[in-house]
Specification:
120 residues, alpha+beta, hypothetical protein PF0899 fold, 3-stranded mixed sheet, 3-stranded antiparallel sheet, 2 helices, elongated
Length: 120
Amino acid sequence: MHEYAIAQALLEKVEEIAREHSARVVTRVVVQVGKLRGVLPDILRFGFEVASADTIAAGAALEIEEVLIRVRCNSCAAESNLDTPLYLCPACGSTDLTQIAGSELILKSLEIDNDRNPRP
């Protein structure tokens, strides 16, 4: 279950950013996760919920934006989204592709509240 390790690393970064901004509470976290990461969103949410208990991010909503596999064909220059990692250009059938998206794991944003008291 690598989702829990991801959740722990994500929480560490969220706490670091929250401290830098003197946040009292983190209310929302948005991450982009590439389809090739093999992350199951529900398990990542659960892992984040468990990891963030008794922290500044306890109860924060975790939003996960899935990033599709995106490739550029080196033969015809077409850019395409792929549903599966079957590396064939939909435009010309070439296998000479360069992956340009789909492996991301990015902390896109977080919302903090400096006015509210930390959750008990």
